[in-house]
């Protein structure tokens, strides 16, 4: 009798209402778990225990879903530090954005693809960029120098950058057409010298290769130092 009563009470419990936030949070969690390419409305509906059609009351299609997921992630970036100079404030936020992306490795590809597909960035990205511009302006930057700063920093403002070459994973099969090391050294002596001399990080998030966190911060600091000199000269 007690068991029957408990089952009836459980059945009578109201279900958590479906909302856009629940849909997007679930989509982000599933993408973290299995990658964004495997994400589908059906899988999201299963995770939420609803029929797929229920999702379309909150997101019209896959593109709107991806845009909403981007906004969820941008919401994880730390707010501006009100007690810091412009250089420290920008650096902190960029590195916070990078930590967010390291939690969600699929995000850079989605941000890049959706940025190209949309006429304007998503609302959360627009708010983030607007606040970053505000930090520069409050730090004494002319609007012209802010314009240049955004161009030179590019996607680094959101915590990532497009590398010229990607380090090959250590478990990748050797290229059968690759030239022997001796020939490589003779033909491309400077590339070989660099490849042999640079430090490598086995625990890098991109696999065995350059210390990506150091390289990211090196480029960020180099850029901010240069902008600081330009700002001081105006």
Task: Write up this protein.
There is one protein chain. 62% of the residues lie in helices and 0% in strands. By secondary structure, the chain is mainly alpha-helical. The model is unreliable at 204-208 (pLDDT under 50). It contains 12 helices and no strands. The N and C termini lie far apart (82 Å).
Q: What is the percent of helical residues?
A: 55-70%
What is the strand content?
under 5%
What integer is the average pLDDT? 86
Radius of gyration: 23 Å
**Class from secondary-structure proportions:** mainly alpha
Q: Any chance you could write out the topology, listing elements then pairs?
A:
Blueprint: H1 2-12, H2 20-34, H3 41-48, H4 52-55, H5 62-74, H6 86-103, H7 107-117, H8 123-138, H9 143-153, H10 181-187, H11 189-197, H12 212-233
Helix pairs in contact: 2-3, 2-5, 5-7, 5-8, 6-8, 9-12, 10-11
Task: Compose a concise summary of this entry.
This protein is mostly helical and 234 residues long. It is built from twelve helices and no strands.
Summary tags:
234 residues; mainly alpha; 12 helices; flat
């Amino acid at each position: 009798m007690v068991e029957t009563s408990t089952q009836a009470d459980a059945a009578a419990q109201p279900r958590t209402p479906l909302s856009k936030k629940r849909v997007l949070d679930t989509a982000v969690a599933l993408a973290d778990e299995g990658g964004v390419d495997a994400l589908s409305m059906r899988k999201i509906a299963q995770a939420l225990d609803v029929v797929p059609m229920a999702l379309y009351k909150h997101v019209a299609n896959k593109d709107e879903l991806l845009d909403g997921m981007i906004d969820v992630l941008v919401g994880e970036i730390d707010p501006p530090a009100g007690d810091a100079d412009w250089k420290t404030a920008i650096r902190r936020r960029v590195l916070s954005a990078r930590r967010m992306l390291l939690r969600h490795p699929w995000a850079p590809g989605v941000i890049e693809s959706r940025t190209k597909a949309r006429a304007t960035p998503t609302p959360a990205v627009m708010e983030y960029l607007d606040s970053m511009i505000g930090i520069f302006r409050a730090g004494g930057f002319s609007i012209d120098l802010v314009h240049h700063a955004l161009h030179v920093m590019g996607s680094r403002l959101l915590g990532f950058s497009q590398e010229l070459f990607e380090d090959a994973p250590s478990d990748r099969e050797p290229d059968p057409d690759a030239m022997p090391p001796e020939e490589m050294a003779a033909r491309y002596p400077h590339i070989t010298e660099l490849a042999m001399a640079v430090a490598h990080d086995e625990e890098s998030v991109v696999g065995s290769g350059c210390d990506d966190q150091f390289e990211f911060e090196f480029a960020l600091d180099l850029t901010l130092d240069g902008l600081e000199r330009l700002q001081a000269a105006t």
